[in-house]
Write a structure and sequence with these properties.
This protein has eight helices and three strands, in the order H-H-H-H-E-H-H-E-E-H-H. By secondary structure, the chain is mostly helical. The chain has one domain (8-115): Arc Repressor Mutant, subunit A (Orthogonal Bundle). The longest helix has 20 residues, at 110-129.
Amino acid sequence: MNNPIDLIHALEHEPELALMVSQPPIAFHRTFVDITGAAMPALLLSAYMDQQETALSADGWFEVNAAELEYRTGLSRREQHAARKTLLDKHLIQERKCAFPARLEMRIDFDKVSHEILLAARKRTQRMAMPFTGTAVATASWARAH
């Protein structure tokens, strides 16, 4: 049988546990799932938005640090790469590599993001305006056949 864990005692004696428990929740804009097609790119775009707000660059470019992003979002380097590729493919961000010092910089294309959000909202409005047909009938037909 498992022994109950005394969380208070563990927090007092294990500082790393206290740091883990006190981390803020990971959140992202749900609308970004609609425009990126998945949660990971949506999470990365949200993290970039937060980072870009604090960027000192007047032209919107900000430095990206994979280790820091992994700590903040929980996304591994591989997951970040795949999510970043999705954002680049959809032209929601731009990327540049700087040589001295070596670093990766990003810029969010706010016009493109705004445009995609507007399109997603219009699609949602159209779906809601359409009568609910087909899905229930198709599901019932499939159920009878199997």
